[in-house]
Amino acid sequence: MGSCDMKTVTMRSGSVIPALGQGTWNMGEDPARRQAEIGALQLGLDLGMGLIDTAEMYGEGGAEQVVGAAIAGRREQAFIVSKVYPHNADRRGVRAACERSLQRLATDRIDLYLLHWRGAVPLSETLDAFDSLKKDGKILDFGVSNFDLGDMLEAEALPGGRAIALNQVLFNLVKRGIEWDLLPWSRKQDMPLMAYSPLESAGRERALLLTNPALMAVAQRHGCTAAQIALAWLLRQDGVVAIPKAADPAHVRENRAAADVVLSAFDLEDLDRAFPPPAKRQALAMR
């Protein structure tokens, strides 16, 4: 993958991935937007955001099809992350789901395959299925999503648990609960965290974040947008990958430029006052 001087994060397996990637939540749901979505992902690839996160859940496979079209002819530039539904997470279900995802993505392997969240299937069975897919070359690494510290400790103790490469969780300036225990533990384990909804979800929550006076003041000091400061705050942290979604060229370029913003100690103090770190343990935030 071309990095364009992009900061990188190293997974436990040794694979190196861009710290800033691209999300695809809500893509593949409207045929009228398909070409714009494909173009946005391709522009992101051009700019060094080669990590593309998707899931069989997104548009019930529609987002994976968009990704497949975007990476056609340039697979080596992309690091593809996809996720399996919990109800498909038994031995036979994981393999079948993975094959369907591979077909939609039009590729022979998924670089990182995640359990989307915990369900009724025992973790030991899912890990065993992931290991089998990895041995067959269908996936190169596997991990989890929406796992709190207790979930991670349980998973780590199982056969194959130490092969978990990454945990994807909700993390942004507003949702900082993981800083109390999950993030420090993950760093000690050399396990990156992938932050989804780095700018909050669309609508009122995002508007409240991006119109925060302190965030806007920091953005003004840097001559950039509030969204870029919120992304830069995540990207400055060791072992954290951010995956904002963008479906138009201007938004893609804005996200990429956030990786070049360097926040000062003064900036960080202002942001901590406006968005305080956790003072006690909190339940894992999820979307």
UniProtKB/TrEMBL annotation:
Species assigned in the record = Massilia mucilaginosa
NADP-dependent oxidoreductase domain residues: 20-273
Cite the source lineage: Bacteria, Pseudomonadati, Pseudomonadota, Betaproteobacteria, Burkholderiales
Q: What is this protein called?
A: Aldo/keto reductase
User: Which CDD domains does the record match to this protein?
Assistant: AKR_YeaE
**Gene3D superfamilies for this protein:** NADP-dependent oxidoreductase domain (3.20.20.100)
Known Pfam families for this protein? Aldo_ket_red
State the superkingdom.
Answer: Bacteria
